[in-house]
Amino acid sequence: MSQSKLHKMNVFIKIFIHLSFIIYALNVLQQVFGPLHIPPMSETFWNWEWNVQLIPFYFVGDLFAQYHTNGSWFFWNAVKLSFYNMLLLVPLGVYLSIYKVSSMKKAAAIIFVVSFGLEISQLVLSYSGVIIARTFNVDDLILNTVGGVIGYFIFKQLKLFYRSFHFKKQHVNG
């Protein structure tokens, strides 16, 4: 393949990655905030006791309580929601690996800050009535961060595998 075609393909891939990141980021915002209410709702039913959960791993006890109190449907629904919270930032971890964030520690810090920003934004927008009442939940921070780090780790490992496979293939053919 000529240098010109290779350059054009690289430019196309970079543009595609940037656009897919923008679409992903907009989707995350839509999932986290839902529809915006303008003008803000007058009755938000917002309450510190209900809307702020600061106990780490509270969701684990909550899962068992859901199962024993409300039955298996509610339990599996709670499991699904926890799993979706973890999945939410997996692509962010992949993008950080693509954008060459050098270490897992840096990636975890960025993912945590993004998750914290989303949670704080939910709190402020819920309190102001711009979105329906959502909670600030420390478990969401944990699950989002773990999910993002998993995405970073898996993609980093795939890149290493691809490079070693590609290197071996070149030596066999060369």
UniProtKB/TrEMBL annotation:
InterPro entries, alphabetized: Teicoplanin_resist-assoc, VanZ-like
TM segment ranges: 12-33, 73-96, 108-129, 141-162
Keyword ATP-binding: no
Keyword tags: Membrane, Transmembrane, Transmembrane helix
Superkingdom in the source lineage: Bacteria
Pfam families, A to Z: VanZ (PF04892)
Domain VanZ-like: 21-156
Name listed for the protein in its UniProt record: VanZ family protein
Classification of source organism: Bacteria, Bacillati, Bacillota, Bacilli, Bacillales
